[in-house]
Amino acid sequence: MSPREVLQFIKEKDVKIIDFRFIDLPGLWQHFSITPHELDEDVFENGLGFDGSSIRGFQAIHESDMLLIPDPTNARLDPFTEVPTLVMICNIRDPLTGKDYSRDPRYIAMKAEQYVKTSGIGDTAYFGPEAEFFIFDGISFDQSYQHGYYHIESEAGFWQSGDDFPNQGYRPRIKQGYFPTAPLDHFQDMRSEMVLTMESVGIPIEVHHHEVASGGQSEIDMRFTTLTAVADNLMWYKYIVKQVAWRHGKTATFMPKPIFQDNGSGMHVHQSIWKGKKNLFYDKGPYADISQLCKWYIGGLLKHAPAVCAFAAPTTNSYRRLVPGYEAPINLVYSQRNRSASIRIPMISKSEKAKRIEFRVPDPSSNPYLTFAACLMAGLDGIKNKIDPGQPVDKDIYELEPSEAKKIKKLPGTLTDVLNALEADHDFLLKGDVFTRDVLETYINYKRKNEVDAIALRPHPYEFALYYDI
């Protein structure tokens, strides 16, 4: 919709509240609301003020004033509020310079899309994320001077099979939750409600199902679209999953690895580049029907994967998931069909339209605007520099002989490692002014101070089992 059409829509639908949303640097939606009489066409041009110093990764207190510029093209009715509420995702502007704000993740995604065109490589980058999540009955956690713990409550968790309360059984075994029907799958109706709610706000959904882990792991797959639009959709996706679970007295989490010794939640990201109506990743005949350009894109993504992980797997908990033995894509190779490789080329369809790569490293704790932009910039760098990805590996990498396995590069194993990698390897992100040095420095410093150092300072509960009697 245009600004004028939004104003007309507000009258037609008797909207009472307009909600403005934007994303902070770590990846959490923020918002504030106004009444309709405060909104006119001028707001779409000049924006609304807010305190940028109160938002993670944004401004210092002495330069706090910032502007939100609503994007009328994504106006959608909130499906959860009792009061009729219209939601618009916003961009951020610096009121002093009048320019878009360099630390706004959505602006970074928009610049990455523009860089595809200015690079001369293609017109459009398509992305399709597959975000996984857990639905729990309850969660409690605390950390203080003399204690630290978490406790997950899940009626669907296999570990509760021996409990004394009225117990009907039917829980997926550890690592055996993929595709069972009810009553093993407790969440069919709830996921269906999530799907229908997503479609009500304009997000087309392809499939939903129970995932591998016990304890309520689920997946809903949205249809691919352009980079910024799909990041917008993913923020709606996470909001809807959490809200529907909340409405049912449950709690949903996109934390990558909440359960010990079971599979974590990933977010496989499908990617392709098009020029006009031509899929530049497709070439019938060579390996997996992928073009040379696609191979170079893979080469760039594999080369820069450690740095990309700083955005795509951005939490200390991400590296509880990225370990051998849990379908985790820790091996920096590509393959057709092979889910033990970090990049897979799906072979379900032979259609040109369906040809794409699937980067299996990211997880849903990431900021999608930054993650998708970083993936794209790594791939474009591979194309520009014709980076050879090497030979595909069409074997189960976890079953290779040690002599073969040693030849395969692995992902870094900690958040510290990938932040160091980003610090050392980031020139590819600066092309086209997509990311800026200021953004990268701010992001790295935030992660080190607020996450890496915070975890390093606290005793872990299992350390007492290991060391208390030493």
What does this structure look like?
- Strands 7, 10, 11, 12, 13, 14, 15, 16, 17 and 18 form a 10-stranded mixed β-sheet that branches. Strands 1, 2, 3, 4, 5 and 6 form a 6-stranded mixed β-sheet that branches.
- The chain is α+β, with helices and mostly antiparallel strands.
- It contains 14 helices and 18 strands.
- The chain is globular, with a radius of gyration of 23 Å.
- The protein has helices at 3-12, 41-46, 105-118, 188-200, 227-247, 292-303, 305-312, 318-321, 368-384, 402-405, 415-424, 427-430, 437-456, 461-467, and strands at residues 17-23, 29-34, 48-51, 65-70, 76-77, 85-93, 124-136, 138-143, 148-153, 205-210, 217-222, 225-226, 251-253, 267-275, 278-279, 331-336, 341-345, 357-359.
Distance between the termini: 67 Å
| Tally of strands | 18
So what's the overall shape?
Answer: globular
Q: Name the structural class.
A: alpha+beta
Oligomer: single chain
Any low-confidence stretches, pLDDT <50, length ≥5?
none
Radius of gyration equals: 23 Å
Helix content: 25-40%
Mean pLDDT: 94
Main sheet attributes: strand count, strand direction, barrel closure: 10 strands, mixed
- Binned strand content: 15-25%
- What count of helical segments does DSSP give? 14
